[in-house]
Amino acid sequence: GFFAAASPGAGAGGEAPGPYTVVRDGTKIGPARDPTARTLGELRRGEAVRIVEVASSRSGRVRGRIESPVAGWISLVDTRSGRRWAEPAVSDPPAKPQAEGE
Length: 102
What we know:
102 residues; mainly beta; two-stranded antiparallel sheet; 39% strand; globular; disordered N terminus
């Protein structure tokens, strides 16, 4: 196949499922992993999306599957050129677990 599926938690090209922020206006949402497929919509810079699956192509493009605002695939990063469409969202540090008995 053209794409290699990433193992859960260890994303292709260093990318992993989770919250992302779109960093490029006009990021296209496609119906398939193939970045040349027709588009279902576009995202604007600053929009938050949740990547639920990551896959990479032989061309170096890393794609992420989203379920909202529409179900489809977006490009995350081109590992050859360094061009990026979305980056992992900065998350708050996890809360400290409470000690037993509190």
